[in-house]
Structure formats: C-alpha cells, structure tokens
Amino acid sequence: MNDQPTTKWIGQPLDRVDGPAKVTGAATYSADYRGDQQAAIGFIVEATIGSGKVSQIETAEAEAADGVHLVMTHQNAPEQAPFGDNADAGRFGMSHAVLQNDEVRYYGAPVAFIVADTLEQARHAAGLIKVTYQADDSVFDAFEHEDDAFAPDSLDGAEEADVDKGDFDAVFAESAETLDATFHTAAQHAAAMEPHATVAEWDGDKLTVHIAVQILSSARKAFANTLKIDPANVRIVTPFVGGGFGSKLGVHSEGVLAALAARKLQRPVRIAQTRRHVFSNGPHRTNHRQRIRLGASADGKLLSVAHETLGAMSRDYPFAEAAASPTMASYAAEAMKIRHRVVAANIPHVDSMRAPGEAIGTLTYESAIDELAVQCGIDPLEFRLQNEPEQEPASGKEFSTRTLARCLREGAELFGWEKGPVKPGALREGPLLIGRGLAAAIRPNMMQPADAAAELDRDGRLTVELDMTDIGTGTYTILTQIAAETLGLDPNAIAVRLGDTDYPKTCGSGGSFGAGSTGTAVSKACALIRDTIIERAARLDSDWAGVNSGDLRIENGNAVVAGRSLALGAILDAIGGDSFKGKGQVEPGKAHEDLAQYSYGGVFAEVSVNADTGEIRVRRLSGAFDAGRILNEKTARSQLMGGMIFGLGAALMEESLMDMRFGSFMNRDLAEYHIAVNRDVPRLEVKMLDTFDQNSNPLGSKGIGELGICGTGPAIANAVYAATGYRTRKFPIHLEDLL
Ligand code: MOS
C-alpha cells in the first residue's frame, strides 16, 4: 500500500453525470430504442415440462390471430449452431441457440415465439398455441441425486474445486473445540429493475442488437456464434442498463429469438421479457448445501477448516459458484479441506449473481466462525482478529494488501461494539429481543483487459469512447472524473460514450472489475493526450520543456501550466491536425497472478426480534470497507449501501422456490419473490478506508460493487443469535424458524 496521491476530481462525490437524463426519461434503455422502421413485438411461449420433448405443437390458430406476423417454433426456426457450440468463447459467448429441436431442456424454455404488431396481440396468440409433451425422467433436486455429483470444470471464484492443505481429518479430530454444521442457502434471482430486453434490427447481413447486457464483446460473440455470422456484422448497443447483478453478463433467449425473427420478417423485433419470463429465461443462483467443519484450540486458535458445498448446475450450461472461496482467504488454519460439487439438473440456467461464491459463502462461513467463537468463550471480534493470516490461507500467496482486521476494528468503532457480545436474551425492550452481531466481508479483486479512446478538440472538449456499460453503478461519472483528473479538465467539457461495440473493446461490467479496469484504460488514453500536448508545446515554446505533466490543465481551449498558456489550436496548427487523440489499453499484470488480492469489510448489525411473533427487524447496519482508492465518494457509498441491502435480503428475504415435481420456480414475480424494500432497510452507516493499492491498478482502486453483500447477511444472522440464542442453519431466516 502506498500513500494517496492528491487529486482534484478523483474521489469527489460528483453527482451522476447521467442523472438528469435518467430522471427526465431521456436515457434510452434497450427496449426504449426506436429506429426508423416500427418494430414488431415478440412474446415467448414457455415449456410447461422440465425435461422431455415437444411431441406436437399446434400453431394454426395463433398464426391466424389478429396482428400476428410470425409464430416461430422448432419446426420453422432458422438453423443455428447447436447450443453450447464454440465453448471456447466461454459461457457468455458460446452458441445460445433456441428452438433448435423438439427437446425441452428446462421448465420455461421457449417452445414458440410469437411476433405481432402489439404486445396484446402477441400475448393473446400465445394463449392459442397448443403443445403436447412427452416428459422424460428429470433431475430437479440436486440433493436427491448426490451420488451423481461431480467437481465442476467451470467454477466462478476458485481455481480448483478441491483444496487440501495438511491433514484435515487428523487435525480436526485433535481440535479441542469443534463445530460441524450443515447450512442451506436459497436459490435467488437477480430481479433487476429493467427486465432482459432486446430490439434486433437487420440491415442486409448486418445485425444491430439493442440488448440489456453487462458485457458487449461477449454478447457480440454469442450472436455471431449462434447465428453463424461474422462478428464484424454484429453491433451491440446498450447505453443504459437498468441493473444487472450478473443476470446480464450473457445473452438470453429473448435476444436470440428477436434476432431470428427480425431476419425472417425483415423488420425490427422488440421484446421485453415479462417479470415472469425473467424467472425462467433469465439466470438464477442455485440453492446450496454447505457443510462446514471447524476445529480450534481451547484458547480459540483456528486449526482445521472444512467447507464442502453441493449445488445444481443447469444441464449443458457450465457454471458453478465457489461458495468456499471466502473460506480459503479469511482465517489462518493449518489444515484445510475444500470441496465444490455439482449435480447436473434440468433447471433454468444457473449463473453468476451478486458476489458469486462470496455472497453465500460468507453467509455460512461467517456464521460458523461466530458460533465457534462463542463456543470458545471469546468475543467474536477478538476471535477473528486473533486468527488473522500472514498469507492467503489456502494458497500461501502473499496478500497485495491485508486490511481485514483494520476494517473489523473500524467497523466496531463506528457501530460501538466495544462492550462486546451479550448473552442471548439479555437485551430486551418490552417484547423485543435485541441482538448485535458482526461478520467479515471479503471479495476477490480482479482486473480485466480493456481499451479506451479519447479525443480532445481545439476548443478543449474531450470525448471518451469505450464499449463499457453503466449498469446503474456510476460508470459514466467515474470515467468522467478520471478523464478530468488526467487532463486537468472541467467535467462539463467531457462526454463519455459507452455501450456500443463500435467503440474500443472492454471487459464490461462484472466481477466488480469494471471501474478499475476501464478507468485505467481511460486514464492511459488521456495521459497520452496530455503528454502529446506537453511535448508539442515544448517544440513551440522552450518554456514548456520539462514541465510536470501532472500540472497541466486544459482551460478555455488553452493548455495551461504554471504561468504558461498556449492555445490548443496553435499546437494543433503546428502539428497539422484537428484534434488530439489517445488510446489506452490495460491487461491484468503479474501482480494479479502472483498476489492474493481482495477487498475487505467489517459489518455490524443490530436486530430486534419480537419474542411473541418472531418478526425480525434490522435496526442498524454499520460497515467499514476497504476497496482501495475511492473513485467517487457518493457512487462508491451507494454501491456499498446497495450491497448491504442485498445482504439483508439474503439473510431474511430473497428465495426462489422450485416446485420439485416440475422443476419450475413458483414465486416468479416481485410480489412473491421478496426483496428488501425501503421499510426493511434501517439506517446504514458506511465508512470507506480509502486506501491505495498500486498492485491492483495504477488508479489504486479495488472492486467495490459486490463487497457490501459479503458480510452483511451473516452479521444479521449472528445478531439474530445474540437476540434469541437461535443459530440458523438455513437462509433466508424465516420468522417461523424462531418460534
Ligand atoms: Mo457480477 S455477479 O460478476 O455481475
């Protein structure tokens, strides 16, 4: 870690530069796009079995219905590359073929696509389709098919499904204090405000897709691979995305259906998935069983750790999350045994969702650690501090920075933990039992390749272009600040353009790597312009020789530094150009391979539990977080607060329930899929350490988007224990569990 550089714009709580466009409705989300030609509207007809074949499908009545232009089924869908083809392109870029044959892979998979003049017509016609199925034997419940479990090839958050360090069984057997707890965590859906939506438009053999995605370059690959066309003929456009949470990392059936139908009809096709569709034609996080065994010495030194997880993988869709990833990085232990196992199931796609791995891993591990601390008779804060590792526990790698203990201490101060834990039931206000708990937050810090282009005109107006997305996180704003900082330019003179594959390629938004990766590319592009200006100015005026590039400002069309000023136009005239151009590129370096890099937090919760009704209310949440250098005090705080609210939801509310007879999710809307709403959210206190990690990237920032989730859920569960003496073994905690 090193000292923070002094800055003018980076770190400032600048209001969102896209805020006015969003609140006035001027911001166009994917389904808002209107081209020259009026789009026809699509509607998905979903399979009503979990696995099997379509034996008959009657479409005549639907085809004859008012306004209907197309009824596409497997019988007339254009040929595509088989689903999963081009696996090298990864799960987001491989073929996402739809309606390719009579097979049904999961409940809710499209069996027909209706395109009509209006949504009402399409929806009405959907009701006229009659499908007869032949159902197969299916696997819906992973836990019932444990014997078929295997180690996943594609695991998000850990390099290996298995880790063995020392002899767990032997050390565990000799540990003075032990815990053996099996937890269940719920299936969840991203439930983003904006549903998955697409407008597809063809011009000859060129396809333009306005689609709600987080990563444009992989969406382009997915369309090219599915439709077997040249990626150069695919343009993806998405200037605004209304929340992703992982569910928009890849493309989904609605996008491919729209592209196929638009080509058939020679007309743009628009489809916004209904909320109900999103729960089957969008991805979800699967439920997990997690067994955790911990052993400690009598004085609370953690010795042995085993974390074994089992979840479902959607058949043919290679993804599993590493729920034990925080376990591998949090506390020192001489023996460690990690197992990740999955069962292939006939269920909708399982994919990354909000802190894949860590969200559900800290939920269980931080609950178990807390329980063991209490068993050892040690303040759970002290227990965590005394088990701080020197190196990453599972790998032995050095940490880039390690501030978990500092986050816990500062969180404790913010919250007022100094008195330590109290016995369950000891704090009471009338019928309310009061409890306080804490947990650590930890989340890997990643970096991904990104390119950016910048152009400064003679009037001193800067345009920055890259195919990055702003999924509500504040990308437009932080990239504006980074450009302003690098060129000493007022943010009002800067236009950041995102969300178009015509711009330089980036990693997009995901894994909390977007800001650091694309921010570095933008700063490099702008630095190139800055250095060009200084170098050229020095050729015109020797006073400019050797000036410090960090002192340059662009003001009123002039390059200005310490008493010297030159018109940008004069410099450009001497070069013979109209503008200064810079390109920036970044790749993850050796520091990301060699060092264990994480963001950290310490989260504290106070809850009340009604002793008569079991109603749990979160009263207070305080978190101290270290995500390296903070790029915008306001948007960063919002990211952490949003994350904490998701953590609250994971502890107490969010749960997708599958009907195991059919493999169908039952609560497919926001009335039945509960997310935390304003009334559920207490005062949130966020402290940001605002450090600087040069190993992360030149900006010194680290991933922040998913950090707040990790730690908040278990802090609440631990507070519920402190209130009631009840240790949960499943999430979310229901009030009836407490009665
Ligand atoms: Mo995140 S779940 O990688 O969008």
Helix and strand layout, with pairings?
Layout lengths: L18 H5 L16 E7 L5 E7 L1 H5 L3 E6 L16 H4 L9 E2 L5 E7 L2 H8 L3 E6 L19 E2 L5 E4 L2 H7 L2 E9 L2 E2 L7 E7 L2 E6 L4 H12 L6 E4 L15 H13 L3 E4 L2 H7 L2 E2 L2 E9 L5 E13 L5 E2 L13 E11 L12 H18 L4 H7 L17 H12 L12 E2 L2 E13 L5 E8 L4 E4 L9 H13 L6 E4 L16 H27 L12 E3 L2 E4 L2 E4 H8 L3 E8 L3 H5 L3 E13 L5 E11 L6 H20 L5 E2 L4 E2 L17 E6 L20 H16 L5 E2 L8
Parallel strand pairs: 1-14, 7-18, 9-34, 12-13, 17-19, 23-24, 30-33
Antiparallel strand pairs: 1-5, 2-4, 2-6, 3-5, 8-19, 9-16, 10-15, 11-12, 11-14, 16-17, 20-21, 21-29, 22-23, 22-28, 25-26, 26-27, 29-30, 31-32
Helix pairs in contact: 9-17, 12-13, 13-14, 16-17
This protein binds dioxothiomolybdenum(VI) ion.
GO molecular function, one term: iron ion binding
InterPro entries: Ald_Oxase/Xan_DH_a/b, Ald_Oxase/Xan_DH_a/b_sf, Ald_Oxase/xanthine_DH-like, AldOxase/xan_DH_MoCoBD1, AldOxase/xan_DH_MoCoBD2, AldOxase/xan_DH_Mopterin-bd_sf
Protein name: Xanthine dehydrogenase family protein molybdopterin-binding subunit
Describe this structure in words.
The protein is an alpha+beta fold and 739 residues long. Among the domains are: 19-26 and 448-587, Aldehyde oxidase/xanthine dehydrogenase, molybdopterin binding domain (Aldehyde Oxidoreductase, domain 4, 2-Layer Sandwich); 357-446 and 593-738, 2-Layer Sandwich (Aldehyde Oxidoreductase, domain 4). The chain has 17 helices and 34 strands. The chain has a seven-stranded mixed sheet, with helices on both faces. It is globular and about 80 Å long. The mean pLDDT is 97. It binds dioxothiomolybdenum(VI) ion. Dioxothiomolybdenum(VI) ion binds at residues 214, 244, 246, 249, 352-354, 356, 510-511. Dioxothiomolybdenum(VI) ion is lined by residues 214, 244, 246, 249, 352-354, 356, 510-511.
